[in-house]
Specification:
The protein has about 375 residues and is mainly α. It has one domain. It has a two-stranded antiparallel sheet with strand order 1-2. Helix 6 packs parallel to helix 8. The longest helix has about 30 residues. The relative contact order is 0.12.
Length: about 375
């Protein structure tokens, strides 16, 4: 890796990080001024309204850092693709922002993700897994929709989605930089930087949420980075590597969907039954639960990097080990009676509130 390459990566990362640190408090004040708030509902954990618009800060920081780097040091190749990706990421974040403000129907959001996936395929982005172009297009679309929604669903606890996205982007950066993919490495550095800058104000206790604007943006960028990843080895190993690097988000989505379907409930309705909620239900504090998931994401990023640098047999072995552990932990977590525990806690809180009210009334009568 040339010294100039590392300087470019560092400048994009630091630029995106610092701009996100500056923009996020501005977005917070704007959300409070405009009353753009996420109000508590039956399945959400926060007790009071929380300001949205953190996603705008991330999108703005990332875009300025990446475009600025492209102007200062124009890319030798991939310039048109860069602006296609930026346009698609901006469009999806705009859909997410409208959803935050107006609550769009789910099919509108999914349709926009399908369109973004098809646009990537038409721009030449994707893995050539099949001999049929239609099959490759279908894989690209499914991948974009799956990863984008996975990070949207992962945004269910303070600091979780932003932190896991930063770690995943870091894993993609390491693989891309080691293989001389300057465009992918630069965009990965920018994605990690804006997510970490936002995390400063989003980690528990959070002061601002990213909303769908931010989660759709991060999910799409991770989906794109995975599709662009290339290294020596068969395409099957390539697919396994990108699945492993974003494995935490995919694991959470798969577990939630499977558990809800087994209970004959819609997987599209919100509930407090994600991996993070199950860890908290067994007694782990929120920051520790998020840290545990961070640890899993880092471990998977390291494994993905090793898989990209080793022989095919060992890559398959590592992927099989990850899959086996995923099934094991999935079975264990699925057995956590998260809904029953949450119901018991609500009754306990109501009882405490009722006892406090009774005590207050008795004190008032005595006075």
């Amino acid at each position: 890796m040339s010294e100039g390459g590392w300087q470019l990566y560092g400048s994009i990362f630091l630029g995106s990080l610092l701009l996100s640190l500056v923009f996020t408090p501005i977005a917070l004040r704007l959300a409070l001024h405009r009353s753009v708030l996420d109000y508590p509902t039956g399945y959400k954990g926060h007790a009071s309204p929380m300001p949205y618009l953190g996603g705008l800060a991330m999108v703005g920081a990332f875009s300025i850092a990446v475009v600025g780097a492209a102007i200062v040091r124009p890319p030798v190749s991939g310039r048109s693709e860069l602006f296609v990706v930026l346009a698609l990421a901006f469009a999806l974040s705009l859909v997410g922002l409208v959803d935050d403000l107006r609550h769009l129907r789910p099919w509108i959001r999914v349709l926009s993700e399908v369109g973004a996936g098809y646009a990537l395929h038409e721009a030449g982005v994707g893995l050539q897994l099949f001999s049929s172009d239609a099959a490759n297009a279908a894989f690209t679309i499914v991948w974009v929709v799956a990863i984008t929604n996975a990070f949207n669903l992962l945004d269910n606890m303070d600091g979780l989605s932003a932190g896991v996205a930063a770690i995943g982007a870091g894993g993609f950066f390491a693989i891309a930089a080691a293989n001389g993919q300057f465009l992918v490495a630069g965009l990965a550095a920018g994605t990690a930087g804006c997510a970490l800058g936002f995390l400063r104000h989003n980690f528990h206790p959070a002061r601002i949420y990213m909303g769908d604007c931010g989660s759709l943006f991060l999910g799409f960028m991770l989906a794109y980075l995975g599709l662009k990843l290339r290294f020596d080895g068969p395409v099957s190993v390539n697919v396994l590597v990108l699945v492993v690097v974003v494995g935490v988000a995919l694991f959470d989505t798969t577990l939630v969907a499977a558990c809800r379907l087994l209970r004959r409930r819609s997987p599209f309705r919100g509930a407090r039954d994600h991996v993070s909620h199950r860890l908290v239900a067994v007694g782990i504090p929120v920051p520790a639960a998020v840290a545990v998931i961070y640890g899993a994401a880092v471990s998977l990023g390291v494994i993905g990097f090793v898989m990209s640098r080793t022989d095919q047999a060992l890559a398959y072995l590592l992927a099989g080990l990850v899959g086996a552990l995923g099934v094991l932990f999935g079975v264990l977590l699925a057995r956590v009676p998260v809904e029953e525990i949450e119901t018991a806690r609500r009754r306990w809180r109501r009882r405490l509130v009722g006892e406090a009210d009774d005590a207050g009334e008795s004190a008032a009568e005595a006075s």
